[in-house]
Amino acid sequence: MTRIEFWQGNTACAEGALAAGCRFFGGYPITPSTEVAEHMAVKLPKKNGVFIQMEDEIAGIASVIGASWTGARAMTATSGPGFSLMMENIGYAAMTETPCVIVNVQRGGPSTGQPTMGAQGDMMQCRFGSHGDYSVIALCPASVQEMYELTAKAFNLADRYRVPVFLMADEIVGHMREKIIIPDSMVNVQRRELVKGVLPFSPDKDLIPGFPQFGKGYGVHVTGLTHDERGYPCATNPKLHETLVRRLVDKIESARREIADYDILNPCAEQVFIAYGAPVRSVQQLIQDHPDQNIGFLRLRTVWPFPEYALGEFKNVRRFLIPELNLGQIAREIERHVKVPVISLPKLGGDLHTPAELSAALEAHQ
Amino acid sequence: MSFEDWYRQDRLPHIYCAGCGNGTIINCTLAAIDQMAWKKEETVFVSGIGCSSRAPGYIVTDSLHTTHGRAIAFATGVKMANPNLNVVVFTGDGDLAAIGGNHFIHGCRRNIDLTVVCMNNQIYGMTGGQGSPTTPTGCLSSTTPYGCVEAPFDLCELAIAAGANFVSRWTSYHVKELEKAVLAGLQTPGFSFIEALVQCPTAFGRRNKFKQVADQVDYLRTHTMLKVKRDRLIEQGEQIPRDMFVVGELARRNRPALGVKL
Q: What ipTM was predicted for this assembly?
């Protein structure tokens, strides 16, 4: 029996995590993500899970990584300033291949910026924010339903690829209330265990090593230093470092088609919108208001790794239009993959693009 | 069983300098753990960054060598998610008291069931001898070339004030006492903090007139005062020399703790 609820996006995020079997939440309150933590604080203890409010976001993500090594599905939720604080440990999670889910309910930045207003200014930070080369997965929900579904999906991707997975929500979706249909059950991907006798950081064919859970007798040493397949520090061997970093990137980038999640509407259109997160709704409204105009739409749920091959589905495209709540972060990513003009439609301040604004943009670029 | 069984033989030789005090502290800790009869698969070592934090890499159990200053925060996640694991943190003065100071006081406040062993060499050894929050006033380091003008932290007083259940301080000279202190810390539910002053001939001793390793160890021996003696002297209205480190069991109490094995 499916269940119908009327929920806030942040509540749906927390419920999606619980449905996915999340049993550890470590975090620090920050607007506009706080409801995720509050909901977890109510629900986790009743499900034999652990909620802990840490002393800052650095400790929040640190506790999540620690919990993950005990085998728990673990998450944190934050927004801009807290996200910035988490960056070093996010790199640690990438280097140590620790599965974890990080929810960023984006608000206006830089700095303290606009705590109660929506934005998408952290899209590049989630991809490149920690030092060094690495790859991550980032999902963008555009509805309360997707806050639930994509949070659950984030756990599966994290366990499958042993990587930090970001739910890059925004204040608009996080605080919006709408109908949500709760599925009966979820498909939960199991973390692949390390086969006893195999070196702990020796990858399988898919470039991902099996997981040596703490407390199971693996005796694994986990370090953020460049390490060999035994997990031992080996920080001055150039070849070994390159092999490790390339694998961390390749295990994600080579799986981009498997990870990709997007919808294509009107693939024959000449004018094509690309959107993720809250601006998706403005584009959907525009298309609904103008059924005769043959407007193309690539609606992304996976932003990183960027599914650039999906751009090729629009055979007649003459220009891409990219409404974003930032100054064109993903437009720049799209620009490097296509030869047609990419029109960035940035909007700052916290308001969503109106369908009229998008319509005007369409006309201006005819 | 011997504490030597806890070492990874395939990691040797280790990175510590000749004369370093860290090995003594790691030996004492493992000797205490050996007496606890903990199973290796149920024991996890967590550390941050610095010389002391390299210790878990030489131990056969599961271990997490994390980011600078954050060991207690990572360890909190491990212990809360699985209280059946015995979690021990190795840290140093820079890692614990400078960049990780906030996690240290909150670990004490939560009184989470960890045992934290701090190797206090009063300097940043791994980066080549910069001043730390425990560098004594007047001492030389590469970033205090005219003598440290700041006052050092008393890490034990900090831990006691913040709420830790067990607090003890010894030095690399006091091997037997230190082992017993770690054992008491391991046995005490809640946050146990053991500070071990150690010699660092390469980064500290060389700059501060300790020509031989033994000179600095002897300094630690002669500049420590038992807590009971300190208390008695204060009672008699006598002055305690400022360069004296108070050693012994400084706090043992039974405040409610977090993450204790059921």
A: 0.97
